[in-house]
Design a protein that fits this description.
With 305 residues, this protein is α/β, with parallel strands linked by helices. The chain has nine helices and five strands, in the order αααβαββαβαβααα. It has a five-stranded parallel sheet with strand order 3-2-1-4-5, with helices on both faces. The longest helix is centred in the middle third of the chain and has 19 residues. The structure holds zinc ion. The site of zinc ion has 7 residues, from loops.
């Protein structure tokens, strides 16, 4: 690993840490935490350039320090799993796991993401990216145009994801549940409401039981609407996982709303009309939804779903 950070020796040192991670997966969690603590000044100072969203170590962009879903997948493969499916609903392309398992037929990577090369990070994730020569078809990409909303995203998701998972037949499902495709996320431009997450969680949960005897490893991911969007979305996912979503009241706990509002306001955000429910009004559909629906049909045709 060569360093492009501002301090000659440091990137090589974190490269050694990452090499250690790859060879000592049992110690992965403690090593990860130790590495983050050790290198935190360089991380926040953006002097460690050899880290990327999620885990594409050559791109030189400081977003993700260690690719936790890829570490989980590598651990599963090292401990007997023969087929692992990775599903990434983060608004950014799941470039790290795709690159890491590009030529590995044991891992199917599926990513649905905002796609606008040259403008929206990271710019990879075209539908033509399908896996390496040793694993053709092992990567599936569903590139959504900016401003896609609920209808387009869900249509594309359902046109592709269930069928490609059924045909692959994973023993374990690993998901990256980034919440940054929500319309309140400040970094991205998709326009999903919480209704999408509720529906996607249901589908993923059903697939985990249909295909994997319920074996589902869920990781977090992006999400920069940290007060208004992420807590609601991850609560919906977790409630679905816990078979508790039917018991979840729509109203957010009033004490939580007050606390979250005040914390957001303390950052200078005009926290005004803070959400008080999990559900929210649907947004108007746009031309991007029509494009997204067509993308879903095209990807389904390409992958034979
Ligand atoms: Zn993201």
């Amino acid at each position: 690993m060569t360093g492009r950070g501002g301090r000659g020796g440091e990137p090589a040192q974190i490269g050694e840490v990452l090499d250690h991670l790859a060879h000592d997966l049992d110690g992965a969690s403690s090593t990860t935490i130790g590495a983050i603590v050790r290198y935190w000044p360089e991380i926040v100072g953006a002097e460690l350039a050899e880290v990327a969203h999620p885990g594409s170590l050559s791109e030189g962009v400081l977003t993700v320090v260690v690719d936790d879903p890829a570490v989980a997948i590598a651990w599963l493969l090292a401990n007997g799993a023969e087929r692992v499916a990775y599903v990434d609903v983060d608004v950014h392309h799941g470039d790290g796991p795709q690159a890491i398992f590009w030529d590995d037929p044991r891992v199917l990577t599926v990513s649905i993401h905002e796609y606008s090369p040259g403008w929206f990070f990271p710019g990879t994730g075209a539908m033509t990216e399908r896996g390496g020569p040793g694993a053709p078809g092992s990567a599936v990409n569903i590139p959504m145009p900016p401003f896609t909303g609920d209808e387009g995203w869900l249509s594309a998701f359902h046109a592709v994801v269930p069928e490609v998972l059924r045909r692959f037949g994973p023993q374990v499902l690993v998901t990256q549940l980034g919440a940054d495709a929500h319309h309140e996320d400040p970094l991205a431009n998709l326009r999903l409401t919480t209704a999408v997450y509720r529906a996607a969680a249901r589908t993923v949960h059903e697939l985990a039981h249909e295909l994997c005897d319920g074996r589902w490893v869920a990781t977090g991911g992006g999400g920069y609407g940290w007060a208004r969007a992420v807590p609601r979305i991850w609560t919906l996912w977790f409630a679905e996982m816990a078979d508790a979503i039917g018991d979840l009241p729509d109203a957010l706990p009033p004490g939580w709303v007050t606390d979250a509002h005040d914390r957001l306001a303390a950052t200078g955000d005009p926290a005004g009309a803070f959400p008080t429910t999990f559900s929210e009004d649907a947004l108007a559909r746009s031309d991007a939804d029509d494009v997204a629906i067509e993308v879903g049909v095209a990807v389904a045709a390409m992958v034979g779903a």
